[in-house]
Structure formats: structure tokens, C-alpha cells
Amino acid sequence: QHYVEDLYLERIAEHTGVSAKYISKIFKDKTGSNLTDYIGLKRIKQARELLIHTDMPINEIGTQVGIHSRTTFLRTFKKWEGVAPADYRQMYQDKPAMDSSSAE
Predict the structure, then answer these.
(1) What is the pTM of this model?
(2) Which of 31, 51, 67, 91 has its CA 20 to 30 A from that of 12?
(3) Tens digits of residue pLDDT in 77-100
């Protein structure tokens, strides 16, 4: 729910009153993923939706999903998707929409 906030392991640990090491271990044991990757993936999933379904500027999308640095957003998006956000958007915007009238 809070993925758009400035989240990091130490802040979550402070908020919950347990050590960062403990949270990290429990999270990894329960999900199979580390917390940083989980938060990053949540943010990128939302960014993909915004890239495909809006004309929102890429900088604004990064901010909207909780990544306020353009460089960090570009690097993180490419890490998860293998392409830059602009290229991802173009791949989906170039696909012709299925028109129900063309199926006749």
C-alpha cells in the first residue's frame, strides 16, 4: 500500500520496532524475495501500467510510483524490464488495437 512512499529497510524496521536484519530475513523467508526487490518490482509494475495507459511524462511516472530521481527510475525500470521506459511505452503504443468491426 505504501510503495510510493520513501521506503527503505531501516525506515521500515524503525516503524515496526524490530531490527532491519530481522525484517530482511523474515521477508525473504516468507516471500522468497528481498524487500528492496519487492518494493522495486511493485513500483515498476505500476509504472508499466501508467506507461501503457496514460500519456503522463516519464519523469512524472517515476515520481508517481515513488522513485523521485529520474536516473534511478530509468535504471530501475531497465533492470526489471530490459528496456528504457520510453521504449517500453513505444512498444505498446505501436501495437494496433484490435477493432471488433474488423473481425467480421
Answers:
(1) 0.75
(2) 51
(3) 999 999 999 999 999 876 655 444
